[in-house]
Every structure is written in structure tokens, then in C-alpha cells.
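Can't paste images in this forum, so I'm doing it all in text. The chain is below; anyone willing to post the predicted C-alpha cells underneath?
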Amino acid sequence: MENRIETRRPYAIVHEALLTALSEDRTGAEIVISVSSVAEHFAVSRPPVERALRMLVAEGLVERTSGGKFIRPGARENPVPVKTVLDRLPLDVVSRARQKGSWQPLYDQVERMIVRFLPFGSYKLIESAMADYFGVSRTVTNDVLHRLEERGLVRRGEKGRWIVEQLSQHHLSDIYQLRRLLEPAALVESAPQLDAAFLEGAVERIHRALAVRGNLYAEELQAIERDLHTHALSHCRNARLLAVIRQAQVLHITYLYLPNQSASEAERTQYLSEHLQVFEALAREAFKVAEQALVFHLESSEKRASERLRQASDAEAEAAPPFLLRQP
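Text version of the structure:
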């Protein structure tokens, strides 16, 4: 079957990627390994990360402190957060790690498929038909669907059936209103704890993107997105606030996946310039300016997403895969 997907267990993928990252670090500094940071970086849940770290402990490469934290032993004067080390991994290594988990390759495909049909109506998703279509087990499809449910792309309807609801302009407006209220608040709390090396790396990535007028691979664009909308907020201590933000952010992928969409050079450079304004303000510790720049970026992003949704809604829907049934 042409849609079949080869899979590997997530913990093995994370273990391999961490082993590469730690072995290539030459700083000699202690590396503080946050389970949540690793999980976010590789787009996996916490259990496989914890299992991978226990394997590294058994191999003598990582230690677990009395407080339950994981560290790579080294000089303690300037400990390094694991994100700094992971950011040094080549994009192709990170991309392969994200694509090879037992459910991750399927998740990426199904997410794109669902988003492509969000403007056109509501759909019933048939799990058994999805498993047949991709040639995977129901265990894998169930993992995918629960992940999609966590991110707000599907929900359980009557009798436990999976439903994909249409994305309307009103829904999009509600999402961005939520983001404008929450993300700047999280940024202000997180900003004083942001590592200087991270800020320098984020600014450098944006400058490289501007040098090619925003003509980026999807992985490069997503790295820039994560810098601002995930990592820059990650030191906010309110875990519930961050969870709500993550769910609200899922619809930000619409501008990546909607059919027949392409951004102009002016739009791409404007988007990148907005990111740059936030990070330059953070780098000089002008946190209030950074907060205002993020609000402006989210307002501009809503306008761009709204126009893309309008254009997609006016287009004719293509044929849906057999596991998506259009609802009357």
C-alpha cells in the first residue's frame, strides 16, 4: 500500500538523538536536562523522554540528582540548559527524529490532511478506515487521534465518534484573541530567565532567513516559530497557562498547510521582521517593548491567517481521503 509508514519506538529515537547531542558537546559544562524541554524539541510526550534518559543513566552518560533532575556531569560554574545543546543539532537530525516515532510520521500526515479540509466543513473521521489507509495498527491511529484531540483538531462526538469541526472566521478570531491575552503575559514572566545564547541563536536564525527573503524549508520556518512561541515562553512558571497557549497555537499551522496558499516576499519579510523586533528587545532586556512587539505580531498574524482562510474557503474542496466523511 503506497501510504504505509515505517515506524520506530519514540524512546529509541530520543535516546539516539540525545546521545548524538551530548557526545558532540565540547564545552565540558554541566548540562541540565529538562524532560519537558526535550519532549517539546522532538514533539513527543514525556514518557519516552524519561525512558530514554533512564537508558542514558544506565549507560553512565547521565546522572539523576537526589531531587530527581537529570544532568550530564561537568563544570558547574556555568551550567548549560539542554535546549542550548539540542539547538546545535543539524536540522536534518532533528527532522528525522521527529518523523520516525511510532505515531509521529502518521501524526504529521494526518494533521496536514485535516488542516487542508478545515475551511470546507465538518467531517467524521473513521479510525478503522484511517488505519487501513495508512497500513498501521489501531494502536498507532489511537495514539495519533488522542494527540490531535489534545491539540484541538478533533473531538469525540456522539457515541465516541471522532469529529473534525470546520474552522470559521469567528473561531479563528476567538483563538487569536486568546493568544493576544496570554502569550505576552507568559513572555513577560519568562523573559528575565532567557539564556543569552538562545537569544543570540534566535536572532541569527532570523537574519539568515531574511538574507534569503524568507524562502525557507518547513523545518527552518518551524524552528523560528518555536523560538518565539514556545521556547521564549517556556520559563513562565504557570504550567496551566502554557498548556492553554499550546492548544490555542495549533491553528497557527493553518497558514502553512492551507491549499493553494503562498506568501509573497513582502509578507515573508514582514513576518520575520516582527519576530526580530521581539528578540532584539529581549536581548537588550526591554521586556515591555518585547511584550508590545509580540502583541503587534499576533495582530498582524491574525490578519494574514484570516485572509488565507478566506481565500481557501472560496476555493473548491478537493476530494477527501476515505477516512474523512463530509457532514451535511
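The longest helix spans residues 287-314. The two ends are 31 Å apart (CA to CA).
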